[in-house]
Specification:
two-stranded antiparallel sheet, alpha/beta
Length: about 375
């Protein structure tokens, strides 16, 4: 059975300019998904108030080696989505600019801004990429705030607003959704007043509950969080209780997170009244594991876990996967070299994970 997704939306409604069909949630998903592509390699940086038509930007990007390498994280249809958007009547008049990308020892961050024909701007933050640095920063969100990417997002939104007159939309997919919410909630009042919508597309929540803060409440009517029915990512940590559950035909946590698995009906995602039982079970198990550790223990686990992965000399998940045998051997050797107490702590953390996941499964099985 074929389910319509954002690609089908483009093929059907891509002939409609924004003057006829206003900006909609699926447009938001398209722009936040395309933000995963390495536009920073071909477009002017944030400091330059320079804008490039999307078709021209796509052509320049296609000249770059490995521009369409999706790795293990980026959805495989993302390059095709960009090309389809650039060729459509709807998005061919969109301009893109204000690129910023940072990848350092503890930071993975990227953002760009889309200038739309309706006079608004969409500020999009990139989600977690294939790098181990990016994944370590996501783990750090469970015990530290703001993480470097959140601080950069807050600063980027303020700087982008100076180059973008009129109303602002802010959004992202995965970690990009988290950054969009963080940046909007912590923006100066004069920037917040110009924000007409903030989109978190299956973005994780926060180490502390932001939803009760005055700044969050002031934006609440403009904040939209989408969570697929069996998602794990979008339900982690403190999440918006008003999140909209949508239908995804993806298999497993990764499949649910894939934006191309989200079912589209017209200009909206197909809503559901509640999350699936499997989704609730997996979320309860994982969240139970996180809650079983205090912040110091979460930090210890993160530092040790990623130091073990670093022993493989891999910098990305793709590199880990491609050389899995050598990587596994290097990790085992690094584990053996850890102090005995650290080894015991890691075993304890992993045991808690297994117990929480199995307990959540048993509890779900007893539900009527």
């Amino acid at each position: 059975m074929h389910y319509r997704n954002c690609m089908d939306y483009l093929q059907i409604r891509g002939v409609l300019p924004f003057s006829i069909a206003p900006f909609c949630p699926v447009d938001n998903l398209i722009l936040s998904t395309c933000a995963y592509l390495p536009f920073e390699e071909v477009l002017p940086p944030l400091a330059q108030d320079s804008w490039v038509p999307l078709p021209q930007a796509a052509q320049a990007l296609m000249q770059q080696p490995d521009w369409d390498a999706v790795g293990l994280i980026m959805a495989k249809d993302t390059p095709q989505l960009l090309l389809l958007a650039a060729q459509s009547d709807r998005f061919s008049q969109v301009q893109v600019g204000l690129c910023q990308a940072v990848r350092e020892e503890d930071t993975q961050f990227a953002a760009l801004t889309w200038r739309l024909p309706d006079g608004t701007h969409y500020v999009s933050f990139r989600g977690t990429d294939d790098s181990l640095v990016g994944w370590k920063e996501c783990f750090a969100m469970s015990y530290d705030f703001p993480v470097p990417a959140q601080a950069l997002a807050q600063d980027y939104l303020v700087q982008a607003a100076r180059h973008c007159p009129g109303q602002l939309r802010v959004g992202g997919h995965s970690k990009g959704g988290n950054l969009a919410v963080w940046a909007a909630v912590h923006a100066p009042q004069q920037v917040q007043d110009r924000i007409c919508q903030v989109y978190s597309n299956d973005g994780p929540g926060f180490n502390q509950d932001l939803t009760t803060s005055p700044a969050y409440q002031a934006l609440a009517g403009r904040l939209v969080t989408y969570v697929p029915q069996a998602s794990l990512v979008g339900t982690l940590l403190h999440q918006d209780p008003e999140a909209i559950v949508i239908r995804s035909h993806g298999v497993g946590t990764v499949g649910q997170h894939d934006p191309f698995s989200w079912q589209v009906h017209g200009t909206e995602f197909l809503p559901l009244p509640r999350r699936s039982r499997r989704g609730e079970r997996e979320t309860a198990g994982f969240q139970g594991w996180v809650d079983s550790m205090n912040p110091a223990e979460r930090e210890e686990f993160t530092e040790v876990f990623f130091s073990l992965l670093a022993a493989s000399q891999a910098e990305t998940l793709s590199e880990l996967s491609q050389g899995w045998a050598d990587s596994a051997l290097a990790v085992v050797r690094a584990y053996a070299d850890l102090p005995s107490q650290v080894r015991r702590d890691m075993l304890d953390f992993l045991w808690r994970f297994l117990v929480n996941m199995s307990t959540a499964g048993a509890s779900s099985g007893r539900r009527p």
